[in-house]
Structures are given as structure tokens and as C-alpha cells.
Amino acid sequence: MDTIPLLLDTDAGSDIDDAVALAYLLRQPRCELLGITTVTGEVEKRAAICEIVCRAAGRDDVPIHLGRRDPLLDGPGQPRVPHYESVRELSHRLDRSENAAVGFLRDQIHARPGEITLLTIGPYSNVALLFALDPELPSLLKGIVSMGGVFFDDGRREWNALVDPIATQMVYRASRKDHLTVGLDATETCRLAQKEVEGRFVGEPLATVHRMAARWFEGTDRITFHDPLAAALIFEPDLVSTEKGRIEVDGEGRTVLREGEGPDRVARTVDSDGFFEHFFRVCA
Q1: Is residue 143 scored above 90 in pLDDT?
Q2: pLDDT digits (tens, 9 = 90+) for 163-192
Q3: Predicted confidence (pLDDT) per residue in 227-282, tens digit
Q4: For residue 50, what are the domain limits?
Q5: Do residues 78 and 40 make contact, with C-beta atoms less than 8 angstroms apart?
Q6: pTM for the predicted model, two decimal places
Q7: For residue 190, what are the CA distances in angstroms to 60, 86, 139, 239, 242?
């Protein structure tokens, strides 16, 4: 079985879907998870959440590094990590070194040129710094997959793109080979109600993620699988149709796809039934 070396950049702990995506990656037999980096706000708590999910999966070997806390220049940022409270009594550490994420990502990608896929499911601050410090680096990746933006529903902005809009601009202006972006308007077709989640999030590490979701369900009665869909497309790309072109970002984080030649592909339509069948088969 061919595996895919993968680096994950995440803001786990704000919405529950980051932890769901990580649970999927840990159970995906084709995923060679080289490491995790956390971004925005209390990055040490985001790293702790990732550590707890990894331990629930029996994985103590995955490196986890702290990234950028604040927006590069302007933007609302994302200071708090509400889901940490659900799991704070579980064993974890909060003493990781500051600002180690970019150096870790750079070293990993240079060590395996042309092999690694970078999955970004949080704001773009770490990745923008990475590409700015090493402009050659995007060309050394096998590909980039991101959850961010809105492309076929005019007028809305998506959280990952607007938290640090300058960083979002920098990433999509960088010279890149192949970048698949899964927008909010595509992922919204992949939802499960709370009762369905309770019946299907069994076995580790989903059981631990379900415990974490108690805080999430205080404010909603469903989970939208934004980030898990992006993760699944690395292994099952035919779950979506795509449009090709170049993504442009304005100063407030609004995204638009200029169709034609360019390095970007944007998810358009989603086989949501096929996605859920795949997701729960992998996580069983």
C-alpha cells in the first residue's frame, strides 16, 4: 500500500472539526503523518488537544510544534481555545518551545523534496511565514490542500481566510505547483446531527473527540465536516469535482477564483454520501 507523507497545520480547539480531521488521519492507513503544527492564539492548548487525540489513537510518535500566535499584521486573530476545557484533566503537556513550527515544516519538506503534502486547516499565518522565509519551498511540496475561503456563494467570508487576511494573501500569491482549496460552500454539504454523531463516534480516537465535542454541542446541534473533507480528498480526490484557476484574496479575507490557467483547484460539488461512507469506514 502506497502511503502519503503529510504535514498538518491546524487551529484545533476552536471548532471541533479539526480534531475530527486529525482522528481520521490517525486511522487512515495511507497517511504517513510526519508532524503537526498549531496556529493562532493559545497554540500550546491547541497542541495539547492534538497530543490527546494522538494518544487516544495510540500514537505518541507524532511531533507537535507551536506556531504563530498573532496575525502577521492585521485581522481579528483567534485568541481562545474553548474545547481545551473538555479535556484539560487528561494527560498532556503545555511546555513546548515557542515558534518552532516554521522551522520544523521547512526541515521536513527539504528532507523529502517532491514527496510531502501540506494540509492546512487553520488560518494561514504559519504557512505564509514559511513561504516568505523560503520562497523555493512551495515548489518542493508534492501538493497543498487547504480548507478555507468561499468561492461559489458571493458575499460571505470564511473564518480561516479572514483571521489573518494578509497571511491568506501571501499564501495565494506565492509561486505554487498544485493547491487544492476546499471552500466553506463545498464543505457545508457534509453535516451530521448531534444524535448521529453520538451513535457513530465510537472507538478511539473518535470517542475522545466526542468527549471534546461536549463544549461544541453547547452552541449547536450538528457538526459540519469542513476539515475532515479536506483531509479525505488527499486520499480520495474523486469525492469532489473541481474548478481550476488562480485564487485572489482581498485585504479582508474575501476569496475569489479567477478561472483559467493557474496553480489552484477549488472544490465545487461534493459526493457527501460517498464522503461519509469513506470517513466511517476508515475510522471504524
Answers
A1: yes
A2: 999 999 999 999 998 999 999 999 999 999
A3: 999 999 999 999 999 999 999 999 999 999 998 889 999 999 999 999 999 999 99
A4: 4-283
A5: yes
A6: 0.97
A7: 30, 24, 32, 12, 17
- Of the candidates 128, 48, 109, the one whose C-alpha atom is nearest the C-alpha of residue 83 is 48
Q: Which residue has the cell 503537556?
A: 93
Total number of domains constituting the chain:
1
Cell numbers linked to 205: 480516537
- β 240-249/255-259 pair status: antiparallel
Task: Give the CATH number, domain containing residue 217.
Answer: 3.90.245.10
Residue 153: which pLDDT band, with cuts at 50, 70 and 90? Answer: confident
The residue type found at 239 is L
The per-residue DSSP string of 217-276 comes to TTT-SEEE-HHHHHHHHTT-GGGEEEEEEEEEE-TTS-EEEEESSSSEEEEEEE-HHHHH
Q: Which residue has the cell 516554521?
A: 102
Judge contact between 247 and 168, C-beta under 8 A.
Answer: no
Query: What's residue 87's pLDDT?
Result: 87
